[in-house]
């Protein structure tokens, strides 16, 4: 299929084939930490650790270095610091 465009705009050599979208749902769990808290339960368990962001007070940390993951819980490792009371912990992750 060839479409004609104004001079200098070129032509389409191959039309894009639409791909059906697969619904994906992300959620954010938020916590106000307690002093020295290490475990943060996920409200919806997930096996997809590759699409996860864990942050404390807006700073993003690395899985396997700063925290560990199992399908229903994030465990903070206290390597860089211990949680203080009212630290804002946010976990953004894919659930489907």
Give the SSE map.
Blueprint: E1 26-32, E2 39-41, E3 52-56, E4 59-61, E5 67-70, E6 73-76, E7 88-94
Antiparallel strand pairs: 1-7, 2-6, 3-4, 3-7, 5-6
Main attributes of the structure:
96 residues; mainly beta; four-stranded antiparallel beta sheet; three-stranded antiparallel beta sheet; disordered N terminus
Q: How would you sum up this structure, described in words?
A:
The protein has strands at 26-32, 39-41, 52-56, 59-61, 67-70, 73-76, 88-94. Residues 1-13 have low confidence and may be disordered. The protein has one domain (26-94). The strands form two sheets. The protein has a four-stranded antiparallel β-sheet, with no helix packed on it. It is built from no helices and seven strands. The two termini are 37 Å apart. By secondary structure, it is mostly beta strands.
Sheet having the most strands: 4 strands, antiparallel
Radius of gyration: 21 Å
Overall morphology: elongated
Number of domains: 1
Concise structural overview:
The chain is 0% helix and 34% strand. With 96 residues, it is mainly beta.
